Amino acid sequence: METPNRRFEAAQTIDGRYRLLVEAITDYAIFMLDREGRVTSWNPGARRFKGYEADEIIGRHFSTFYTDAERAQNVPAQALAEAERNGRFEREGWRVRKDGTQFWAHVVIDAIRSPEGDLVGFAKITRDLTERRAAEAKLRESEEQFRLLVQSVTDYAIYMLDAGGHVASWNAGAQHIKGYAPEEIIGRHFSDFYTEADRAAGLPRTGLETATRDGRWEHEGQRVRKDGTAFWAHVVIDAIRDDAGKLLGFAKVTRDITERRESEAALRAAQATMIRSQKLEAIGQLTGGVAHDFNNLLQVISGNLQLLSKDVAGNARAEMRVQNALGGVARGSKLASQLLAFARRQPLEPRVVNVGRLIKNMDEMLRRALGGEIDVETVVAGGLWNSLVDPDQLENAVLNLAINARDAMNGEGRLTIEASNAFLDDEYVRQHDELSAGQYVMIAVTDTGTGIPPDILERVYEPFFTTKAEDKGTGLGLAMVYGFLKQSGGHIKIYSEVGAGTTVKLYFPREVASEDTLVGAPSSEIKGGEETVLVVEDDDEVREVAVSMLAELGYRVVKARDAASALVVVDSGIPIDLIFTDVMMPGVLRSPELARRARERLPNVAVLFTSGYTQNAIVHGGRLDPGVELLAKPYTREALARKIRHVLANQAQRRVAQGSHHSATEKTFEDATVLLVEDDDLIRITTTEMLSDIGCKVKEASTAQEALKILDEQPVDILLTDVGLPGVSGLQLARDLHARRPGLRLVLATGDSGVQSEAARLGAILLVKPYTPQSLRQGLEHAMRKRR
Question: What's the alpha-carbon Rg for the chain, to the nearest Å?
Fold first, then answer.
């Protein structure tokens, strides 16, 4: 047994010291093999790595530590042979522990020889490199992933520059953005990507110098692709240094930001458009209110002048002055109408029209308005779509643009009016508020005038803003056009270049319905009555003018200053035939509610609204609510008389319709087909029953346009039309058909007998409202006997 003293003695010898050293090492497996490769010694490091105790492994062949595959390939014997031959064998590979697990080992086998050179055995040193190998593998994997990442990125150009700025690497993003393949660009200077101006200004050099000094340079600017096209780029250059701080080169990252800059520009434009739209909306609300008060003032002036005209009859000088003053009222009324159009508060009467046909019909009027020095050309594309638009307001808009163009050309130049189909896509409408993508009919008005400076272009829609001389324009033309387009669901766009001219494009949504036939406006003689009218108006002067006009026409008049007071009058029991009320009045009770409550108390009362600014009380979507009658301010005595008779006659006809109990009547008109044109639903329904009871075949229409369509499609014997139709009147419809259809019998239903002379001229029968089944049958019989 070895005692401590003997170990101490052994340690004092050189061999003993080496043995103690080997025994103390645990990070390396150090052991001896005999000449055949059997283990002859075993240190603690070997025991830790391989898992064998000394008595378990000494005497066994070292091939035990090799994998089956390597033993099959005779690798252990080859290792010993190489060590014997060369004195040393060194390899890395998988080795097997006692428990069967494997580890990555670095192995050195040295041949041991006697002083005489004879092979004694081998010294074998093994180190467990599993952790290091795993770390290296992870590093290689990370480097490979990074390489693949850089190479896979296509949205960024990521590449290296040497210290002189020459391209040293090139990823797929660089090829995608700049257009060069690696072999075309590696080795070339990165300044090739800069514009000529930037190169001349030394921008590439500045970038490298800044990155060298500060470690980083960031910049946005235009760069050039291989094909010569320019793009906007965001560039970052980072300096790359070694551990000693020596500059090795630069890492460069470039991103194509062309789309982003375009989107930002589009967003800025959209925001500017929204701000302009909000500004115009605010101005619109203001001008709408101004127009309301202005129309009230005009109504006072106009009404008093018309009343005065009877007092000065026969005094030529006074009559002339009154007419001049009325002419001023008319101009003021037009001004207020333009304000309302801009404010989008003007009730429109849209119809399905072909704007190309309408523009062509304006040709002569435009030539007269513009003068002989302006060359007018009208171009209408084939297959032009229809649009739903108020034709009168469209004519006004085109005329306004034409007059603006004339002034811009100083009375001499070329005006081109074009009409064509257009499509506004999503990209375009994103930049414009309150606009939908889709199909539009486009009207372009182009002049060869002086053009509009860019700083003024944004203000041209503002009311009263004008570049003309003080006495040359009101500044309301484009404002009116703008409001009309917006109220019609359309869009206006101006393109202008100083010194080259201006193009104004108007877009109206496409309408797939068939075109309406347009005819002129009606006219009739003045006629009053003896009914009782309740005038409701908060403006004292306007109210007194209306009362005076109605009194002159023979009506009994009761007045109230607001809706609440009017309801008191209704509740008082005074018989009232018609309520003539302003739309906009102070107080909690609004005019539409007054009308509703009044009808609850007086079912047979008629209601006529008047206003210089309808707002949204009785107008929605730019159109009057169904069944609503409106007389716009300022109105003339003739317009008031005509409208009062129409509303009263319709109400009387409703009473007859509601109180009639029809019985079977001898069918005297079995072969007669009657086209009934009536906009009041109740009157139309009950009159249809009356006509059916007396044996007529009935076709129904609520407007002149619908009537014309029916007449174009099927035979009709008698036209029975209300005179006061909305839009195109029944009287004008009869005038139009009088010449076009000589065989058609005409019957005019109205509460105004003042159209008797006009009916006689047309060979028409006048059927006075309210008519009964008997008077209706007599009128039809008379019409059938009458030969035209």
Answer: 50
Strand partners, 89: 109
Q: For a pLDDT cut of 90, what percent of the chain falls above it?
A: 18
Distance CA 641, CA 554 (A): 10
Euclidean distance between CA atoms 623 and 724, whole angstroms: 17
**How far does Cα 226 stand from its chain's mean position?**
37
* CA 70 – CA 58 distance, rounded (Å): 21
Q: Say whether 469 sits in a helix, a strand or coil.
A: coil
| 667 close to 640: Cβ distance less than 8 angstroms | no
Banded pLDDT at 144 (limits 50, 70, 90)? low
Residue with tokens 């009473």: 655
Tokens found for residue 624: 């009057």
Strand-pairing partners, residue 701, are 677
**740-760, pLDDT tens digit by residue?**
787 788 999 886 656 767 777
pLDDT at 488: 80
Contact between 505 and 459 (Cβ < 8 Å): no
The pair of structure tokens assigned to 478 is 């484009």
pLDDT, mean over the chain: 79
Tell me if residue 114 falls in helix, strand or coil.
coil
Q: How far are the Cα atoms of 498, 564, 568, 619 from residue 572, in angstroms, in the given order?
A: 68, 13, 6, 31
Residue with the two structure tokens 């003080």? 470
DSSP string, 396-460: HHHHHHHHHHHHHTTT-EEEEEEEEEEEE-HHHHTTSTT---EEEEEEEEEE-S----HHHHTTT
Distance of alpha carbon 420 from alpha carbon 439, whole angstroms? 11
